[in-house]
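--- STAGE predict ---
source: upstream dedup step, 1 unique chain passed
mode: sequence only
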Amino acid sequence: MARSARKIRVVHIVPSTYGLVFGGHTHYVFSLLSGWRDEEIALDLWGTEVRPLNMNSGNPDYQLPRRLWPSAGRSSRLQRLWESARQLMFLATRARSFDIAHFQALGWGALLSPVVLHLLGKKVVYTMTLYGSDNPSALVEDKRGKLAIGLLRRFDGIVALSPALAEDCRKYGISNVFCLPNFLAIPKLKEGKNQSLRETVRARYQIPVEDLVLLFVGSAIRRKGIDILVESYIRVAKVHPNTWLVLVGPSRTGESAGIEPSYLDEQQIRLLSARVSDRVMWTGMVTDKHELVGYYSAADIFVLPTRAEGLPNVLAEAMAAGLPVVATNLPGCTDSIVVDGETGFLVPPEDVSALTHALERLISEPALRARMGSSGRKRSSIFGFEGYCRRLKDFYLRVMGIQPQ
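--- STAGE serialize ---
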């Protein structure tokens, strides 16, 4: 099909929890929509409060309030079902105002949307974000998993953030999948370490200039391996008392729906018992992505002992900031970002000893830190915004049956 003279209109559908503005994929969505510039395709944001938000400013350096919608947060099953029904009704009644509905979360409203929207001549796509959550191998374990997978096959396209997610889709007969890792959603990291911010953040936590900082960015939840990180840090701190641990992200009830107070209490008790808690800083929720630049600038090593991911943006962010990375080796996921032995170290899941050994090597070898940090910074260039936009545009054109030029 030849290119249409009419502009293609794409609406991104997000749940109310995106109003918390913390997660890596949240930053990606808002950066994409606010920075998108194209003559042929328009992107907009629609949320569960059914009010479209046009963000096409041409500037990915967005600024948003902490909560976009008052209902942001945990909801009951009945509330989610009502939300899904209302979402479908809203899309159906406003079908004339878009060509493609692009879902960023997989509720039943999203799953059933092809059944409704295809009747109205609309296309439906979805971004698959987390292995172990919204990929077919995880969905099939649910009571209605086979139905969900069958509905996913009816989508006009699936964007998979990592090769692992794309391969899992194909394994279950979902062939219309396109692997497209996210771009670097914090442009200021490309400017290199900010010495002023480094000094400001360290002064805030009274961290001596000559000491080393291990940085974690993410929600303080079990999936992210906080317990593994705590145990490893306890071992490291006994040998290297000049090493600090800074954890950036939700760590208190009310900051994120996934926080387990009892789980975090256990970690605090372990740190207190080991007498290292005074060198561990929990920042809590950070809603301003520019504040994150300060934490990256203040750090020396980035660590992510996660148990499951889709494609962790924080690894690309850390490398862009010139930090060597130590992360869990999740084939088809983290190894598509981190080059083991070159930009950092990939260690087996749940392996505290391997994680500790990798951290101790980087702590003890300044030249290795510098070399890996420099290599990571160069590699982070593959997560560029303009290249991503070109590939996403090609995806949308193919969904509409138009051959990209």
